[in-house]
Structures are given as C-alpha cells and as structure tokens.
Amino acid sequence: MNFVTIKYTLVFISFSVLSFCFPELTENLNLNLFDSKLEQSLGDLKLNIDINSNYSFKHGVASGDPTADSVILWTRITPSHILNKSEDSVPLFVSISEFANFESSRTYSVLTNKNVDYTVKVDIKELKPDTKYFYFFTTLTGDSSRIGYTKTLPTEDAVLKSLSFSVHSCSNYANGFFTAYAMAPLKKSVDYVIHLGDYIYEYQNGYYTDG
C-alpha cells in the first residue's frame, strides 16, 4: 500500500473510492447514545432501528465518485432474510449526517429489486465541500447496515496544505495478504482511497505462474 501526498493537484477519483466501516463506531453509538435503539423519523413513518442488526447487509456499504457537493452511496441487501421472493421491489432508507451520532441528518428512500441483484446506488447531492459524512442504510423491517463514512472533495479553487490518498491495487484472493485494507481506515491522515482495479487471473486458483 502506498500513501501519496499531493499538495496542489486534485485528481479524479472513481467509484473505487470506498468508505470505511467501523464496527467499534457502531458499538459505541449503540451503547453510549441510543441504548441499543435509534428512533429515526422518516416522514410519517417511524422506525425503531437496531444499529447492530446488520445481517441483512452482508455486503456492507461503500461510497464513491465524490465531488465537492455530492457522493454516491452503495449497498446490497440479502433478500432471503427480509422479503418474499415474489415481491417486485424493496424500499430502503439511507441516512447521512456530518455527526457520528446523527444528531442532524437527512434521510432518503430508494427502491431496489432482483433485476439489479438488490443493490442500490444513491446519488446524494447538496453536500458541503471537503467534509466528512457518516451514513447507514435501513429496511422497513428495522434492519440496518453498519455505519460508514465518506468525504466530499474540496472545491476547485480551494487552497490546501496537503491532500493524502491511500492507493490500492490488485490482490490475489487465494494467496494475498489484506492487512493494508484493514489498516487504511486507521490512518487518520488519509483523505481518500483509490483502488486501481484488478485483472483476470490466467492461472489456476491458488497457484502462481513461473514467469
């Protein structure tokens, strides 16, 4: 893993920029602030959200394509737990806030279905530049994802002392070591994460080529 500091150049960041998820943040939010339940008002709908019931979101959360005033948030629900297979679509809600305790937050609704493998991408707009945001997804059944965080880009004319990136590349799933992915969120100096992509392996799973 390479840590690169860029002082005056702002580069385009693809959807490979992932948000970080902290189980410990979820635990602290649960125990210290809301006594295991977060009561979130969604218009006329009121849900009691269990912050720790993330088993409907087995693929976690992610974010990408940040701009100075927007970011795309992603998740996937596990349909076998929360819906009958005959249902055409499933409503999800995503809450986003500048505060880890969601003291002041916005909540959006979105539909997903089997045609997109029960994934969602929500383009959140009207955000502040160069600002960290916390977010999580919920279902109508009260299941919730882990809490992730993301960050918008600075404006084009912003004067920055530094801008730090964590750069990741291809990993061999069968033989690789993934410590770098776990350590990146712990580097508080990292502003954004860039993944350069992967390739199709030409050799049998679990083996390297001689060349």
TrEMBL record:
InterPro entries: PhoD-like_MPP, PhoD-like_sf, PhoD_N, Phospholipid_Metab_Enz. It comes from the Eukaryota. Residues 1-21 form the signal peptide. Keywords: Signal. Residues 165-207 form the PhoD-like phosphatase metallophosphatase domain. It holds the Pfam family PhoD_N. Residues 59-152 form the Phospholipase D N-terminal domain. This is Unnamed protein product. It comes from Candida boidinii.
